[in-house]
Amino acid sequence: MTFIVDRHNLTLDVQSLQIEVEGPNVGLVTVNQTIVLQGIKNPNLQPAFEALTNMLHDTKL
Questions:
Q1: Per-residue pLDDT tens for 3-20?
Q2: Strands, DSSP E only, in the chain?
Q3: Per-residue pLDDT tens for 20-61?
Q4: pTM of the prediction?
Q5: First-last CA distance in the chain
Q6: Cα–Cα distance between 28 and 47 in angstroms, integer?
């Protein structure tokens, strides 16, 4: 995955990506459990997460 940070390309081998959708740090992004990025507090994160979990639940065999 490639990010642009301060007008420089930063390429990372992303093994895990976490986005906090509940709690005090909504929008906080953690890459590979070590790189923490300031997220954007967005009220759509919780409904989008619920829709994703519902979809995953419905597609399990």
A1: 887 899 989 899 998 999
A2: 2-5, 8-11, 17-19, 29-31, 35-37
A3: 988 888 889 999 999 898 888 888 888 888 998 889 888 865
A4: 0.66
A5: 31
A6: 16
Helices (H), ranges, the chain: 45-59
Instruction: Identify the burial level of 61 via C-beta atoms within 10 angstroms of its C-beta, where 0-12 means exposed, 13-18 middle and 19 or more buried.
Output: exposed
**Residue 45 and residue 27 in contact, taking contact as beta carbons nearer than 8 Å:** yes
Q: How far apart are CA 47 and CA 31, in angstroms?
A: 22
Q: Which two tokens stand for residue 19?
A: 């986005």
The pLDDT, as a whole number, for residue 15 is: 93
Contact 29, 19 (CB under 8 A): yes
3-class SS of residue 28: coil
